[in-house]
Amino acid sequence: MIDVMRSIDQTVDAALDGPAITDDPTDGIIADYRATMVAMKCAMSERLVRLGISMAQLNILYTLHRSGEMPMSRLADVLNVSLSNATGLVDRIEERGFIERSRVPEDRRVVLVRITEDGARILEENDALSDDLMRDVLRHLDPTQLQIIARAMADFRASLETAVVGPPRDRHPLATPAPRSR
Fold this sequence. Notes:
By secondary structure, this protein is mostly helical. It contains seven helices and three strands. The protein has helices at residues 2-16, 26-51, 55-67, 72-79, 83-95, 117-138, 143-165; strands spanning 70-71, 99-104, 107-115. The protein has a three-stranded antiparallel beta sheet with strand order 1-3-2. Helix 1 (2-16) packs antiparallel against helix 2 (26-51), helix 2 crosses helix 6 and helix 4 crosses helix 5. It is globular and about 60 Å long. The model has no long low-confidence stretch (mean pLDDT 82).
């Protein structure tokens, strides 16, 4: 973990030591965000290794938990991998009892995949560990810093949603004429 933290510090330092120093903090924010995500993934990966689950397998569990049962072909599409690659990943997760497969009686070629109770439990444990890690990190900050981070994260999330989904739709757009009385 110490090597990971050194690597993260070097990544941030390299990003901040760019060719020109400006008043725009964007590059530093991006570098810090990336470094933070790397540190979180490394911390969580160590815990997943103990459970015998890879990040790709965890992604499959989350996908099935969110979307529910789906055909193998659809799962491969969602994961953006080949059907044979998805099948290999699913084989290993199924061996651990975290997912199960079944065939559609009307069309035996279609294989459905769903998460099991044990798989859902693993996700709950992973989320709890992630939450514990975040609480541990946030415990080192004073209340004023926490308030600033809380507001900034809410604004960041809203901005991300706007960038990805688009601005919230006006429920009463100006182009809609007001009803007229007679």
